[in-house]
Amino acid sequence: MRIGILTSGGDCPGLNAVIRGAVLKGIQINGQEFVGFRDGWRGVVEDDLVPLGRKDIQGISKQGGTILGTSRTNPFEGEKGGVDNIAAMMERRGIDAIVAIGGEGTLAAAKRLTDAGLKIVGVPKTVDNDLGATDYTFGFDTAVQIAVDAMDRLRTTGESHSRCMVAEVMGRHVGWIALHSGMAAGAHAILIPEQATSIEQLAEWVKSAYDRGRAPLVVVAEGFVPDHENDAHSERGLDAFGRPRLGGIGERLAPMIEEATGIETRATTLGHIQRGGTPSAYDRVLATRLGMAASDSVNEGRWGRMVALRGTDIVHVSFEEALGSLKVVPQERYDEAAILFG
Amino acid sequence: MRIGILTSGGDCPGLNAVIRGAVLKGIQINGQEFVGFRDGWRGVVEDDLVPLGRKDIQGISKQGGTILGTSRTNPFEGEKGGVDNIAAMMERRGIDAIVAIGGEGTLAAAKRLTDAGLKIVGVPKTVDNDLGATDYTFGFDTAVQIAVDAMDRLRTTGESHSRCMVAEVMGRHVGWIALHSGMAAGAHAILIPEQATSIEQLAEWVKSAYDRGRAPLVVVAEGFVPDHENDAHSERGLDAFGRPRLGGIGERLAPMIEEATGIETRATTLGHIQRGGTPSAYDRVLATRLGMAASDSVNEGRWGRMVALRGTDIVHVSFEEALGSLKVVPQERYDEAAILFG
Amino acid sequence: MRIGILTSGGDCPGLNAVIRGAVLKGIQINGQEFVGFRDGWRGVVEDDLVPLGRKDIQGISKQGGTILGTSRTNPFEGEKGGVDNIAAMMERRGIDAIVAIGGEGTLAAAKRLTDAGLKIVGVPKTVDNDLGATDYTFGFDTAVQIAVDAMDRLRTTGESHSRCMVAEVMGRHVGWIALHSGMAAGAHAILIPEQATSIEQLAEWVKSAYDRGRAPLVVVAEGFVPDHENDAHSERGLDAFGRPRLGGIGERLAPMIEEATGIETRATTLGHIQRGGTPSAYDRVLATRLGMAASDSVNEGRWGRMVALRGTDIVHVSFEEALGSLKVVPQERYDEAAILFG
Amino acid sequence: MRIGILTSGGDCPGLNAVIRGAVLKGIQINGQEFVGFRDGWRGVVEDDLVPLGRKDIQGISKQGGTILGTSRTNPFEGEKGGVDNIAAMMERRGIDAIVAIGGEGTLAAAKRLTDAGLKIVGVPKTVDNDLGATDYTFGFDTAVQIAVDAMDRLRTTGESHSRCMVAEVMGRHVGWIALHSGMAAGAHAILIPEQATSIEQLAEWVKSAYDRGRAPLVVVAEGFVPDHENDAHSERGLDAFGRPRLGGIGERLAPMIEEATGIETRATTLGHIQRGGTPSAYDRVLATRLGMAASDSVNEGRWGRMVALRGTDIVHVSFEEALGSLKVVPQERYDEAAILFG
């Protein structure tokens, strides 16, 4: 069988380990051969392929990013997109099946293509860990570790200056990275999109930590929205003066905390360093196992299904199940973490 | 309720996070107070206690080792040991229950004491991840990460000299650390106690990697025993000349590989660096959650039970279940990893 | 002799190693005893002291920040400040001499106090490495290493998305951190305050790297000012619309690069993580040696002098010499680095 | 001009940065072109060359090891070795000059070849930092940092078990790595080849640290020889029973310390991890600058000279000067470090 692999959406530590796992298992056990689509769906619709042999994947599992490149191209848009064109390209290229490594959008597209008769299996990819039907997604552990390393550094500078330090981490829609990195770093407050925390509550946490002689550490997910920004202006991304709001939530929170507590506060936005570079050992193992399982999925003709982690096992779940809903931080997990604040 | 906490056996990254989690949850939610026994069961039988208040646990979750100290003391030995003495000490000190953080031996002792009527809950601790009834134990992830960082370094020196590099990791009875670190580092051979690999097979793996232009990386668990050492001499820890065998399995394997393949081979024994220092973010989160759950176990009177990880949940299992059997590497997990060798 | 130590200004990795080095050398060799002033000059003018014995400095050299705390208090301001008050406090407290660890401002203050007859020796502290009369200052190596680790991560995400990545590092007045981290990370452009680089030149570097198939990496010091911001508006910190300019230079450069090159560009501001956390081995050794030398300076009565690094030797230089001028990046060092851009 | 580059002897972090620096400077400024000899002098005598263009050196400065490979081949041995054969090969290949990156042996060979009329410039390479005429050699900083990271881990396990931990680091003939890593890690004893420390003195240091409530950390260079091994047996590498001595000095010291102090002692040999993997930022900058300077040396016809670091400058020194003598740890530097033991 001839398989095309693609990596789509934002890059994520572990993508190369998935590719390596799939190719090694496929070549040596499942009698498969592989090609790579360049830059995700762009390579599919533009027929941009690279060979993917054993040599090409040597030693890549510790490399960050993706050797295939990635993009946010929508496979149904443009004159070269759509089911028929993709089917024709696969026919022309002699590609029997596609292994699509990507997030919500990619899996949704994969579902549409599968429903239309194409042979596709999925590998879930989201550094935010916000996908249901899998305990964890690769890349998440690395992102959390990078954030915690940074927070360990922020604490010593905070303590030396008796400052409150705010660390903004990834998480547009869910707070998993903030929750885990905050718990690991001993944060005195964790703000996530799932929880509408008031500035008053935040100020109370910060003050009580400060009064205990600690340099308060506040961890905030980029997608957190403070009450008072929940208004027409904010929805349009405008500030109080009606001008485009600049800076992330971390930078906007710092002055609010300073005003509400009188404690000097500084913000740091970790940004892209959370998703690049060498994956953690945990992510390399998980990603490698998922890649190998994806090769098996093709071998067994499990079209329309993605591989996932359940406990210590790799399982297969339907795209429907996977796409069912965003995996948010449950109330009990947040409450559990909140006990450590006070 | 007044609770005594102890950490017993070999140290393990995350012990302090367990202590912090238990104390914070206990003080703030469960109305408990805490004391610490110094050096595990030694502190119990010798009545050596330290106060364990909120101040004492500030910022310790990122510290390696254990602030309480540890030892391999057996609580049933010595004139001050045994159920009655321990019960009397608890009575005298007004200690209602004990949270015992330790491995197989500690949990077995805890079981005997519980069966005798004492109030004890357990927290599993084994850097080797060899305990049943829990998906993972804290400390394991850190050990694997440290091993992988070292292997990433060994590879570049191996490649520069076209050498085979042997890395000996922890794992006296099971190969979990070797399996995960080897998978993550892209090892060309992984040797674990559960698998009787012949030197011929090993040489074949090494040669085939070498012939593909790679610098072979061999990961071996300290407990692996090569066929030819499975004899009377070896059982008594003697070498072929009947003299005490010196050096670990890694150092003993290197010359065997060199002789069998003609490829220059060097061994490195990672040793104690695998179990010390700052825990990984994964271990800090897991250990903190286990500690909090232990405080709840006491609150709910779950005597004779230990906390454990199942998927993403913290559950409670009986000591019986936990002590049932050593969690070895299953054949399918080894076969999965072996696909990556060739 | 009784010595008071203070750490002043922004925190810097290695401060604790200086303190430890001075106290150990002083207690064991020079027959000195020590106290610490809390929060730099604030502790001096407010008579806020802590004992500084052998126990207090155990194991602190690997801790980031400063155990004494720091502030930006000016010792000549306020009713409790000034030479006479400080002299009186020293008299009252039986303090014979002060070891002042700080930057330009602190050393200038120390000079004034020394000129007025107080016994003070200095230890240079600037993470920016912008102080003359010393080859390097402690903290600089750590900051550069942290920046490089972050850039290594940014590169893989840039390469996966074919993006230009901009990394903003510390350096308000000089570009040493940008120069060294950029050279180490293989940057395609380095922008520093000492060099008036045009957006056209920057765009050319970025495009040529992109055309060679690289994901361009731009390293910019926070103090770099683009030509077109060199106007009345900018001097007042206003943007083109006359409103307060928000965001650092990195964030402001990204859209300029994108517009000038058509290449998608993302910025990351490393911020406070560069100055916190465990010092590098290099900085621990340098800071420890400087601290020990400071104890000797007091012993030898070298008032009005600071310790410094020359080659591999620790030397003593007068405050005058040290304060002579800001150590900027020489043209030849920038040209040397620029060869690596193209 | 056409230049051949070679890397010889043990690998060392930074070798690739030297290669990259030389090639980039040479191609862009000095109008040079490059080829690489594979595996050091072996490639020279066996005429084994690889092209070394701009593409070949992209992104290699953060890679450990050497992309050219290395060996311990002596260029004067074998029928294909010697001045005439090498001169003929250079003639045949159109190679005008050689940049030899290596240690004492390589530079000595380079000197002989230069004396015989060949055009060679050198770049000093020794992870042990034992070469005179340069303040530091690249690779040393990385090795020290790796050792210190490991020691930071060993300390927490030592403290948890109240054990003495012995860390064996590189340094066959000199103790620079032991001295710097020991100072940075806060070692209670440092044993180096330059200093004949008695077991009694060592035991005293260990006990005094233990009595102060510390877990003693002993750092020993692999080349240190205890008094009682200074006998005929030892010189022949035999143990007291006349059998081949197995294990490094660290493993041999542990039982001696345990016997002399009664303190449980464990040894760890860091071994090859000290010389592999990503170079530190310091070493990347130093190595890059040395490589660029080597290209200039060729351009300026500085045959028989090597590039070196003096303070913050790159200078040129003759092979004679460089080969003059082994750079040992001076007594005052050891005494300085010893103050921190007690």
Automatic annotation (TrEMBL), chains A, B, C, D:
<comment type="subunit">
    <text>Homodimer or homotetramer.</text>
</comment>
<feature type="binding site">
    <location>
        <position position="266"/>
    </location>
    <ligand>
        <name>substrate</name>
    </ligand>
</feature>
<dbReference type="GO" id="GO:0006002">
    <property type="term" value="P:fructose 6-phosphate metabolic process"/>
</dbReference>
<keyword id="KW-0324">Glycolysis</keyword>
<dbReference type="GO" id="GO:0070095">
    <property type="term" value="F:fructose-6-phosphate binding"/>
</dbReference>
<dbReference type="InterPro" id="IPR012829">
    <property type="entry name" value="Phosphofructokinase_III"/>
</dbReference>
<keyword id="KW-0808">Transferase</keyword>
<dbReference type="GO" id="GO:0061621">
    <property type="term" value="P:canonical glycolysis"/>
</dbReference>
<dbReference type="GO" id="GO:0005524">
    <property type="term" value="F:ATP binding"/>
</dbReference>
<dbReference type="GO" id="GO:0046872">
    <property type="term" value="F:metal ion binding"/>
</dbReference>
<feature type="domain" description="Phosphofructokinase">
    <location>
        <begin position="2"/>
        <end position="296"/>
    </location>
</feature>
<keyword id="KW-0067">ATP-binding</keyword>
<feature type="binding site" description="in other chain">
    <location>
        <begin position="126"/>
        <end position="128"/>
    </location>
    <ligand>
        <name>substrate</name>
    </ligand>
</feature>
<protein>
    <recommendedName>
        <fullName>ATP-dependent 6-phosphofructokinase</fullName>
        <ecNumber>2.7.1.11</ecNumber>
    </recommendedName>
</protein>
<dbReference type="GO" id="GO:0047334">
    <property type="term" value="F:diphosphate-fructose-6-phosphate 1-phosphotransferase activity"/>
</dbReference>
<feature type="active site" description="Proton acceptor">
    <location>
        <position position="128"/>
    </location>
</feature>
<feature type="binding site" description="in other chain">
    <location>
        <begin position="272"/>
        <end position="275"/>
    </location>
    <ligand>
        <name>substrate</name>
    </ligand>
</feature>
<dbReference type="InterPro" id="IPR000023">
    <property type="entry name" value="Phosphofructokinase_dom"/>
</dbReference>
<feature type="binding site">
    <location>
        <position position="10"/>
    </location>
    <ligand>
        <name>ATP</name>
    </ligand>
</feature>
<feature type="binding site" description="in other chain">
    <location>
        <begin position="170"/>
        <end position="172"/>
    </location>
    <ligand>
        <name>substrate</name>
    </ligand>
</feature>
<feature type="binding site" description="in other chain">
    <location>
        <position position="222"/>
    </location>
    <ligand>
        <name>substrate</name>
    </ligand>
</feature>
<dbReference type="GO" id="GO:0016208">
    <property type="term" value="F:AMP binding"/>
</dbReference>
<keyword id="KW-0418">Kinase</keyword>
<keyword id="KW-0547">Nucleotide-binding</keyword>
<dbReference type="GO" id="GO:0048029">
    <property type="term" value="F:monosaccharide binding"/>
</dbReference>
<feature type="binding site">
    <location>
        <position position="163"/>
    </location>
    <ligand>
        <name>substrate</name>
    </ligand>
</feature>
<comment type="function">
    <text>Catalyzes the phosphorylation of D-fructose 6-phosphate to fructose 1,6-bisphosphate by ATP, the first committing step of glycolysis.</text>
</comment>
<dbReference type="InterPro" id="IPR022953">
    <property type="entry name" value="ATP_PFK"/>
</dbReference>
<dbReference type="InterPro" id="IPR012003">
    <property type="entry name" value="ATP_PFK_prok-type"/>
</dbReference>
<dbReference type="GO" id="GO:0003872">
    <property type="term" value="F:6-phosphofructokinase activity"/>
</dbReference>
<comment type="pathway">
    <text>Carbohydrate degradation; glycolysis; D-glyceraldehyde 3-phosphate and glycerone phosphate from D-glucose: step 3/4.</text>
</comment>
<dbReference type="GO" id="GO:0030388">
    <property type="term" value="P:fructose 1,6-bisphosphate metabolic process"/>
</dbReference>
<keyword id="KW-0460">Magnesium</keyword>
<feature type="site" description="Important for substrate specificity; cannot use PPi as phosphoryl donor">
    <location>
        <position position="105"/>
    </location>
</feature>
<feature type="binding site">
    <location>
        <begin position="103"/>
        <end position="106"/>
    </location>
    <ligand>
        <name>ATP</name>
    </ligand>
</feature>
<dbReference type="Pfam" id="PF00365">
    <property type="entry name" value="PFK"/>
</dbReference>
<dbReference type="InterPro" id="IPR015912">
    <property type="entry name" value="Phosphofructokinase_CS"/>
</dbReference>
<feature type="binding site">
    <location>
        <begin position="72"/>
        <end position="73"/>
    </location>
    <ligand>
        <name>ATP</name>
    </ligand>
</feature>
<dbReference type="GO" id="GO:0042802">
    <property type="term" value="F:identical protein binding"/>
</dbReference>
<feature type="binding site">
    <location>
        <position position="104"/>
    </location>
    <ligand>
        <name>Mg(2+)</name>
    </ligand>
</feature>
<keyword id="KW-0479">Metal-binding</keyword>
<keyword id="KW-0963">Cytoplasm</keyword>
